[in-house]
């Protein structure tokens, strides 16, 4: 995600030219295999764990779960997801100022594995708390830097760059596909902790493979772009200690609780986003044309938040829906709840290439970014309205093909917003705030994910119509509003489409 930073052309020219003739990994540099592998296994462990996390929280003790109220459980999952994306900012900062992307990626993988081990071995709420904190911090660090490391494998003239990133993206979705399948299978046959344990094993395999091959990565992957002066180490260490102490104090005193965790993450993310916008817009180092483009990013940010607040309910409301409403009978065998999480990666693998080909074919005739964002929100809202076909039905009344169809629409909406959002954030970014603008897009994902957890508290399986109707039409309204405002937004974008 931070390729433009870690994959800076000048840096790549210096260090990556030696890989220009290396075609040992499907025509790509062999070093890509190492990053491909660790990212694939990280996504395997991440989505494998997330596929069974919510039901572990709210299943009764006799069913192997913790017996937490469903509304509280969805809030915890939403807060955790939001924290992952918040942590990308921390991971990017540590890479840019202290360790470099490659080292942060390596250490983050260890932290992730430790988190999955905690979930597998530490019983009860304590294991969940320790495990989710570690996985969130580690996933944020790895997510922020894996793409950056891939960027260092190619010189500015290497035409294989886009193909390399496509292959890397394939690895992400392969892990996301197989993770929920295998952890769900273990969860239903042996128990939840075996599923969490498999996630730890998957991350361990990725770590072993990466540890063997990381020396083959270019020196550019280890560069610290903007080193923090040693004179400021003490100050930042003090800030870090004070921050951790404040979180511990607020938790001990009951200010931060399990039932308000999603709301806390929402508030923190809102404050961080506003602070980012204020810092960028008030900076004397940006030109008027750059300031105008940052203003143009604000409506895109809002629509992105609305989109992710619905899309990320795959891990909250859709999990409950799959447990209660979905007919998971496959020829007399009941499919694990988590297997639903493997549907979306299949569609992403299939459709991402189709969308890329369509945009390439259309060239300058393709819809502008605000139109794509608006269409993405409208399609996402329509996906929620599709739930109304089976709303308020009895147990196991929604056919599997129905959910597959709805998730197909989810994926189409995603491809109108997710890759486009990353692209436009780099195009609209002022020269001196390039990484911060990418961080702002991550903050929209963090905020939407936390809101998805908070919204899950209002989902009632016995009265689903208001929930899906209201959220569906809100998303559609957001998308329509942006489409109607395309001309003024494009004017602010000053030549960027």
UniProtKB/TrEMBL annotation:
A GO cellular-component term linked to this record: plasma membrane
Domain of life: Bacteria
Any one GO molecular-function label of the UniProt entry: peptide transmembrane transporter activity
Entry keyword set: Cell membrane, Membrane, Transmembrane, Transmembrane helix, Transport
GO biological process: oligopeptide transport
Principal localisation: membrane
Segments traversing the membrane: 44-61, 73-95, 107-137, 167-186, 192-212, 233-256, 262-282, 294-311, 339-359, 371-391, 403-424, 431-453, 465-490
Membrane topology listed for this record: Multi-pass membrane protein
Statement: the UniProt record of this protein carries the keyword Transmembrane helix: yes
Record carries keyword RNA-binding: no
Compartments (UniProt record): Cell membrane; Membrane
Family that this chain belongs to: Belongs to the major facilitator superfamily. Proton-dependent oligopeptide transporter (POT/PTR) (TC 2.A.17) family.
Family matches, as PANTHER family: PROTON-DEPENDENT OLIGOPEPTIDE FAMILY TRANSPORT PROTEIN, RESISTANCE PROTEIN MDTM, PUTATIVE-RELATED-RELATED
Protein name per the record: MFS transporter
Species per Swiss-Prot/TrEMBL record: Microbacterium caowuchunii
Organism classification: Bacteria, Bacillati, Actinomycetota, Actinomycetes, Micrococcales
């Amino acid at each position: 995600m931070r390729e433009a930073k870690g994959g800076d052309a000048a840096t790549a020219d210096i260090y990556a030219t030696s890989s220009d003739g290396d075609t040992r990994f499907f025509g790509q540099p062999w070093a890509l295999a190492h990053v491909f592998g660790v990212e694939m296994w990280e996504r395997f462990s991440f989505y494998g764990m997330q596929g069974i996390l919510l039901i572990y929280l709210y299943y009764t003790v006799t069913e192997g779960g913790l017996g937490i109220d469903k509304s509280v459980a969805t809030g915890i999952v939403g807060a955790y997801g939001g924290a992952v994306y918040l942590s990308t900012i921390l991971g990017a900062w540590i890479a840019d100022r202290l360790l470099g992307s490659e080292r942060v990626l390596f250490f983050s993988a260890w932290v992730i594995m430790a988190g999955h081990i905690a979930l597998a071995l530490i019983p009860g709420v304590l294991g969940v708390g320790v495990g989710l904190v570690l996985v969130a911090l580690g996933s944020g660090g790895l997510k922020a830097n894996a793409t950056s490391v891939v960027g260092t494998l190619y010189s500015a003239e290497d035409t294989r760059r886009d193909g390399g990133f496509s292959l890397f993206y394939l690895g992400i979705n392969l892990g996301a596909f197989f993770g929920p399948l295998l952890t769900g299978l273990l969860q239903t046959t042996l128990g939840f902790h075996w599923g969490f344990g498999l996630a730890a094993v998957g991350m361990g395999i990725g770590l072993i493979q990466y540890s063997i091959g990381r020396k083959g990565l270019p020196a550019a992957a280890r560069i610290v772009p903007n080193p923090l002066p040693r004179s400021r180490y003490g100050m930042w260490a003090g800030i870090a200690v004070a921050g951790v102490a404040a979180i511990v104090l607020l938790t001990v005193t009951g200010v931060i609780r399990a039932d308000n965790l999603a709301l806390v993450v929402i508030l923190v993310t809102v404050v961080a986003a506003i602070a980012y916008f204020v810092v960028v817009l008030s900076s004397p180092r940006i030109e008027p044309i750059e300031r105008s483009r940052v203003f143009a990013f604000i409506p895109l940010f809002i629509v992105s938040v609305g989109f992710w607040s619905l899309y990320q309910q795959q891990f909250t409301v859709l999990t409950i829906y799959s447990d209660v409403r979905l007919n998971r009978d496959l020829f007399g065998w009941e499919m694990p709840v988590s297997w639903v999480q493997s549907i979306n990666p299949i569609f992403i693998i299939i459709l991402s290439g189709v969308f890329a080909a369509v945009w390439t074919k259309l060239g300058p005739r393709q819809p502008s970014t605000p139109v794509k964002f608006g269409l993405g929100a409208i399609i996402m809202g329509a996906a929620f309205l599709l739930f109304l076909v089976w709303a308020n039905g009895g147990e196991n009344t929604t056919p599997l093909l129905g959910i597959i169809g709805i998730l197909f629409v989810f994926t189409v909406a995603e491809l109108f917003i997710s890759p486009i959002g990353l692209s436009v954030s780099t195009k609209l970014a002022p020269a001196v705030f390039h990484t911060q603008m990418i961080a702002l897009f991550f903050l929209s994902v963090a905020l939407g994910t936390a809101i998805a957890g908070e919204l899950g508290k209002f989902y009632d399986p016995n009265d689903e119509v208001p929930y899906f109707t209201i959220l569906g039409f809100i998303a559609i309204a957001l998308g329509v509003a942006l489409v109607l405002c395309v001309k003024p937004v494009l004017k602010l974008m000053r030549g960027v489409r």
